[in-house]
Amino acid sequence: MNSVNGLRFHGDCVFYAGGVRVRIFAGNGSRVGDVFFNPVLQMDGTSYKDFQMITASAPSQAGSVKVRGAWIAGSSNNQVEITANAIGKIDSIEFRGNWFKGGRKGSQRRQPAGPKIR
Predict the structure, then answer these.
(1) Which phi and psi angles does 113 have, rounded to 5°?
(2) pLDDT interval class at 112 (50, 70, 90)
(3) CA distance 31 to 92
(4) First to last CA, the chain
(5) CA distance 4 to 17
(6) Where exactly are the structural domains of the chain?
(7) β-strand partners of 13
(8) d(C-alpha 114, C-alpha 118), whole Å
(9) Residues facing residue 63 across a β-bridge
(10) What percent of the chain stands above pLDDT 70?
């Protein structure tokens, strides 16, 4: 299993306009975890989505993601979107002390698993 763990964004991180400013994706059995965005984080300008987290296919996993003390503005869609497709797993997500402006506040979706084979 391939994995990316232990990413830290400290201090003055600025993300300007773009399609999706931050995308965390785990697919084909990979794992992404321990990703921290610490104060002072700024996501500013026009974007489609500000923060997106997706798992696709088993046993893909994403978790232990923390976004703290961020200023998030300008999204034209869901500002935060978290999606677990099929039987991918997402756990331990924290959004604390953030300021949101514009867009929709967020969504969580769990796609139905494929057909069961016996």
Answers:
(1) -70, 160
(2) very low
(3) 13
(4) 26
(5) 25
(6) 3-107
(7) 41
(8) 13
(9) 33, 91
(10) 86
Q: Is the pLDDT of residue 114 over 80?
A: no
Q: HEC profile for the chain?
A: CCEEEEEEECCCEEECCEEEEEEEEEECCCEEEEEEECCCEEECCCEEEEEEEEEECCCCEEEEEEEECEEEECECCECEEEEECCCCEEEEEEEECCEEECCECCEEEECCCCCCCC
Cβ count within 10 A of residue 5: 10
Token reading at 106? 């967020």
Q: What is the pLDDT of residue 33?
A: 92
Q: List the structure tokens of 64.
A: 């232990």
pTM of the model: 0.77
